[in-house]
Structure formats: structure tokens, C-alpha cells
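Translate structure to sequence.
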């Protein structure tokens, strides 16, 4: 199976995320500096604005390190894996993300999966299957799943 499409998608996601982080830093610094220069705002209001800006920037940076950073790590280390054979789904959990624990080639891999990833997520049920699976190791995301009937 050609995995280059996944690598290209991850690279474009990483590039967009880098632009978004720089844009967020620029916008937040602009707003912060404008707040400091505003002579009509009291000091406590300026402090509150800066605290909120730091919280917003922290959220952007944390989101970057949760997603696009791991995608880049998968690109650099070439850890998008394809496996065809016996796959066992041991456990399925739901919460913020839906996750499933797969036994692939003798090792357990816990992956999150989404409804809009281009495969039928309703196929993901506990059991043993002959299947094709593509997943990103560092991102811990199921990219493709197909059961061979």
C-alpha cells in the first residue's frame, strides 16, 4: 500500500500548524503591546489582558504539541505503519476521543479514531479479524481500517 499520501497529508498539516502558531504569536503580541500602550486602561486591566493572552497562547502551543508535532515526528521517523493480516480489537473506549486497543502483529497498540477518516468506523468492534490497517505510531491515530471478508 502506498503510504506517501499519508506522509504528504501529515506534512501539509504540520506546515499549516506552524503558520497558525506564528500567526497566533503575532496577533497576541500585537494585542498585548496595544494594551500596554493604551493610556486609558488601568494597570489591573492590562494585567488581566496579558494573563488572558498568555492562556490563549498556551492553548495554541499545547494543541500544537498534541497534534502536529507528533505528525512531524511520524514523518521524520517514518512511523506510519501498514499491516495486513490478523488484527484483534481488544477494547473500545469513548470519551473526548474514541479509542480502540488493537493487537497488531503480536503487540498492543492503542489508537484514537474519528468518524470522518475515510473508513467505516462502525466496523471497529471487539473481536478478531483479517484486516488491513494503517496507523500513525506517535500520533496514535488509526488512519485506515478495512476488514477482509
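Result:
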Amino acid at each position: 500500500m502506498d503510504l506517501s499520501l499519508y506522509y504528504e497529508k501529515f506534512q501539509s498539516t504540520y506546515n499549516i500548524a506552524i503558520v497558525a502558531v506564528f500567526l497566533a504569536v503575532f496577533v497576541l503580541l500585537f494585542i498585548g503591546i496595544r494594551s500596554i500602550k493604551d493610556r486609558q486602561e488601568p494597570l489591573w486591566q492590562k494585567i488581566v489582558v496579558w494573563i488572558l493572552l498568555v492562556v490563549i497562547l498556551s492553548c495554541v502551543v499545547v494543541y500544537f504539541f498534541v497534534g502536529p508535532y507528533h505528525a512531524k515526528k511520524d514523518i521524520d521517523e517514518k512511523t506510519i505503519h501498514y499491516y495486513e493480516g490478523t488484527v484483534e480489537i481488544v477494547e473500545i473506549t469513548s470519551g473526548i476521543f474514541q479509542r480502540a486497543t488493537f493487537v497488531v502483529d503480536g503487540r498492543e497498540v492503542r489508537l484514537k479514531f474519528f468518524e470522518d477518516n475515510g473508513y467505516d468506523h462502525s466496523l471497529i468492534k471487539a473481536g478478531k479479524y483479517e484486516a488491513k490497517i494503517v496507523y500513525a505510531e506517535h500520533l496514535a491515530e488509526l488512519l485506515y481500517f478495512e476488514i477482509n471478508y
